[in-house]
Structures are given as C-alpha cells and as structure tokens.
Amino acid sequence: MNNKKTKKKIAWLRYSWGDRIFLAVVYTSLILITLVCLYPLYFTVIASFSDAFDVYSGKVNLLPSGFSIDSYKLVFQNKSIWVDYGNTLLYTVVGTVFNLILTIPAAYALSRKCMYGRNFLMTVFLITMYFGGGMIPTYMLFDSMNLLNTRGILILCGGVSVYNVIVTRTFFQNNIPDSLMEAAKIDGASEFLIFGRIVIPLSAPIIAVMTLYYAVAHWNSYFDAMIYINDVDLQPLQLVLRRILILNERAYTDALEGGASAELLANAANRAHMAVTMKYALVFISSAPMLILYPFIQKHFVKGIMVGSVKG
Amino acid sequence: MSPVNNSTTAANKTKHLYKQLKKSWPFYVMLLPALIYIIIFAYGPMYGVQIAFKDYRASKGIWGSEWVGFKHFIRFFQYPKFWTLLWNTLRINLISLATFPCAIIFALFLNEVSQVKLKKTIQMITYMPHFLTEVVVCSLVILFLDRTFGPVNNLIAFFGGERQNFMGMPEAFSLIYVLSGLWQNLGWSTILYISALSSISSEEIEAAKIDGASRLQIMRYINIPGIMPTIITFIMRMGSLLGVGFSKVLLLQNDLNLDASSVISTYTYEIGLLGGQFSYSSAIGLFNNLVNIALLLITNKIAQKLSDTSLF
C-alpha cells in the first residue's frame, strides 16, 4: 500500500510545473462537469422522496429532508399516466417493428452496386432529408387519409428515417463481403434467400442499433402526438408529461375523486407544495426505465455512432 | 452511322436494360415498401406545398384553389415581427453551433485521464442526461430555475443574491436553451472524438515526450491535428441539424419570454394549426425550409474551405 503511494508520488514528481498546473485544470474541470451532469438527477430523486413543504421552501438542496412517498402515491393514482404509459409502449413496439421492416431491406437494396438505378433511387431518398413539405401540408395529407386521431398515425409517423437508412447501408457495404454473396449465387441461392439466410444473421449489430434508435425516437416523441391526436385515451406518455410538467395541469384530479389521499390535498397551500414534489416523482418514474436500461444499451448506441460516422 | 447500325445498338441497349432490370428486380422488391412510404409521406406533402402560392379553400381542394403568387410570402415579409422571428431563429442556431468546441475540449481533457476507472465513471455519468426525453429535460429546466423553490435560485439566495424568474426573461432564453442542450448532450457528443483520439499512435506521443514536450504541447500539436478530420466531418453534419429542436423551443416557451422564444417554426405552428391559416403558414414553412437549406450550404462551404472533404 505504502509502496503504491510512493510510486504515485514519484510519478507526480516527474511532471514539470507546467504539466502539474495543466493536469490540475483538467481534473478540476472534469470533476465539475461530472457533478453538474449528476446533480439534477440526484436532486430529482431526493426531492421526490422529501417532504413537500421542505422542497417548496428551498430547504432541500444537498440532502433529502423528511422522508415521504406521498408524491409517488399521488402519481400512481393518476390513471391517465398509466393509460398513456401503456400507449407509449404500444407505439414504441409496433412502430419500431414497422420501422425495421421498412429500413433494413431498403438499406440492403441500396447497398448493392448491381441494382440498376441505385444512384437515382438514393437521390430520391436523400432529397427528403433536406427538403420537405412542412407541417401544414403534412397535416393536410394525414387529414385527407382520415388518419387524424388514430393510433395508426403515431406508428406511421417517421416510418423511414433516411439518416438511419444511410447508416444501415454503410454497415452493409463495410461488413458484408461481396464474395460471400457471389459464392451463394453460384450455389443457386436467390437474392431473397441470400438476404434472409446470409445477410440478416450477419447483421445483428446494426439491427440492434436501429432497434434502439427507432425505439428511443418513439419513446421521446411528443410533437406528432400533440399535433395529430386529440383523444386523451390515445395519447403517449410524453404528452401527459408535457401537460403536467410544462403546462402545470393539475395532476391530482383523480386522487381527489378517489379520496384515498384527500387529506394530502386538503388545502390550497398543501396542493401547491405537493404539485412540485409530484413533478419530481413523475420525472423519476418516467425516466427510470431508460436510465435502468442505459448501462446495458450504451455500448450499442456508441457502436451506432461509429457506424454512422463513416461516410458512405 | 447507318440506320441499320443505329437500330441494332438501340436493340442492344434495350436488351442490356432488360438484363439489368431482370437482375435488379429482387432489390426493387426489397426497396419498394420504403420507397412507397417516402413517396406518400415525404413527397406527398411536397405536392401540397403549392398551397403556399394559392388561397386554399377546403371546398375547392388543393388543386382547385386559386393561384395568388407570392402574396403570402409578401405578407410574411411585411409582418412587423418578421425580423424578430428571423433573428431569433438564427440566434438560437448560431449559439448552438458556437458551443461545438465544448465537446472537443471535454474529449481532449478526458483523454488526459490515465486512471481507467475514473475515466469510465466520468463517461458513464456524463452520458446519462442524453437518455432523458426532451419533455423531461425541459421540465427539469423549468423546475430548477423556478423563482421560489428552484435549486439555482436557492444557490443565488444562499450567496445573498436576488431570486430571479429566469424563464420569464427574454434575454436569458437563448442561453437557457443552449446550456440545457449542452447539459444533455455534452458527454454524449464526445464519443466520436474519444474514438478518434484513441487511434492516434502512442509512438508519436512517446517520441514527443522524450523530446521534452509538455502535455499541453502534445495536446496542441499531436492530439488536435489528429482529430481534425473528425471535427470537420462533425461541423458539416451540424449544418443538417439546423432547424431541429423546434419542439424544444415550444416546450420552453411561455408568455413572458415570447420576445426571444418565438422562432419561425413556432410561428408556423401558431398560425397554421392553432389559427387555421393553411396557405399563409405553408408559405412561412417553405421560407423556413429555404433558410435552413441556405444555412446548410453555407456551413458546407465553410467546411469545404477548411478541408478537402465536403458533404456533397
């Protein structure tokens, strides 16, 4: 132990004064940035478990004060949050499957040099990355197709991301050798067989990355739902979050009717205090699934960024 | 050339084309679902864009409505707040662009950390905010800046300052927008640079050390030039990211900060979907799209000047 310490000390002494100042600046700023990134998340957790009045009066800053799970009780009593949680799961799962069915085969086709008219077709896709009809013409199109206020619209929205098609195409170009497909063709395999039996099994990494990208996009999106969906029962979670967290809609109506926690909301002051800690609890509950999954999926995301960074 | 010869080459060409198409048809089948999607949902709205030059009447339909030329564009240019909207849009985008060195500096600093565990911990924590949704991040911003109970104001009060209603200050809006984006994505955007840094040869660095180079000099003369290509690719990609983030502007917008937070796209939303003026807002949307393309071309030109690589 002592030996280790002296070794470290010697390493430190080897640095010149300039290097020491430099390293001090580096480490200080890194630690500061890390703390700034962590603190809001930490604060959300402690505030959600603290006494509502203490949070409201600014007493909770570094440590929780007066443990309480009242805010969680109220959130769990709000039915629309759970209906919308379910909706989001549905849109994310079905929507992502739809995205993958469109994206993976298309990207594969666009990666094959022997496809006639490949450059033209690629251009057809690329143009949409830079130019679009805009919000109103898109809205009118959905309206004319009678898709407004249906579940289908949230699954259809963002069906193909051209950026993701390019990333996937780059993966195919760089990772599936042409010789493999030539060999299969000589053995008499059709292009569909090659795609299904050879290419897909070799593409697990990119399929994982695309699943994540699309799933996160569905999970995050509130804007499409805000424009196209009026029916409260069809709305995704992010929209109810927006109503409660951003627009300050009262989130405890259900609780008041239920009567179970009525004493928590007995007077206006209590309600104002509870509204704040409830928001923190809601932030925590709605973000927890992602933050729990995150350590497991981070690797795939990083891989996706790498694949996408190669110009194809 | 004799006419006979001509017809044979034409026949050959047709034959060649037929052969090409026969070879390509499986790929067309794979591409078809995505292509149909793109044509309906990306090119379909582009057909609808013509209402920007018409007086759209629902009873007459898109095609039947009367042409009015640039009437709606002129109306927008003469709108008293036109310059405010344009400037707000540009300002938010420009300040966002200007923060890109932060990620580079952060990556360079992180690269100086020799303790693997510490480095991994810092990465793990700074990546975390990236996994929160837009609605959640914006609500955290609003909660943290709250005048009565927000931790930021608690800190100001602790040092004897005056509590401020930051969300109600137009002059603070762009800063809030950009800093919250930085908080969410700083760690995440270092991934590309860190991988580029890890591919710099350690021999070169060792040689520089033997020659007595300080750490700062190694960073300046080896690490930064080493990641220059990555930096330039990134700058170019940012061009295409302009115009994104409108949904976040909408989340942070309130009646008090409208002077700084109304951008072209929020105005389109307001006029079109909330106000029902389809033609006028389509014209504004089209103008916004053209501004974005112009900005993209400018960034690409600058990047071209900086290096030989370019987006097109």
Please, could you describe this protein's structure?
The complex is a heterodimer of chains A (312) and B (312). Chain A is mainly α and 312 residues long. Chain A has two domains: 2-69; 79-250, MetI-like (MetI-like fold, Orthogonal Bundle). Chain A is 76% helix and 0% strand. The longest helix of chain A is centred in the C-terminal third of the chain and has 42 residues, at 268-309. The radius of gyration of chain A is 26 Å and the shape is flat. Chain A starts with a helix and ends with a helix. Chain B folds into two domains: 3-67, no CATH class; 81-306, MetI-like fold, CATH 1.10.3720. A two-stranded antiparallel ribbon of chain B has the order 1-2. The model of chain B has no long low-confidence stretch (mean pLDDT 86). Classes of the chains: A mainly alpha (312), B mainly alpha (312). Chains A and B meet through helix 2, helix 5, helix 6, helix 7 and helix 11 of A and helix 1, helix 5, helix 6, helix 7 and helix 8 of B.
Strand order of the largest sheet of chain B: 1-2
CATH architecture of the largest domain in chain A, by name, is Orthogonal Bundle
Portion in helices of chain A: over 70%
Looking at CATH, which topology of the largest domain in chain B would you report?
Answer: MetI-like fold
Tell me which CATH architecture of the largest domain in chain B applies here. Orthogonal Bundle
Largest interface (C-beta under 8 Å): A-B, 90 and 91 residues
Order of helices and strands of chain A: HHHHHHHHHHHHHHHH
CATH homologous superfamily title of the largest domain in chain A: MetI-like
Q: Write down the Rg of chain B.
A: 27 Å
Head-to-tail CA distance between termini of chain A: 52 Å
Low-pLDDT stretches of chain A: none
Please, what is the average pLDDT of chain B?
86
Count of separate structural domains of chain B: 2
Q: Poorly predicted ranges of chain B (pLDDT <50, ≥5 residues)? A: none
Task: Please tally the helical runs of chain A, counting DSSP H or I stretches of 4 or more residues.
Answer: 16
What is the share of helical residues of chain B? Answer: over 70%
Oligomeric assembly: heterodimer
For this structure, what is the CATH homologous superfamily of the largest domain in chain B? Answer: MetI-like
Look at the structure and give the mean pLDDT of chain A.
85
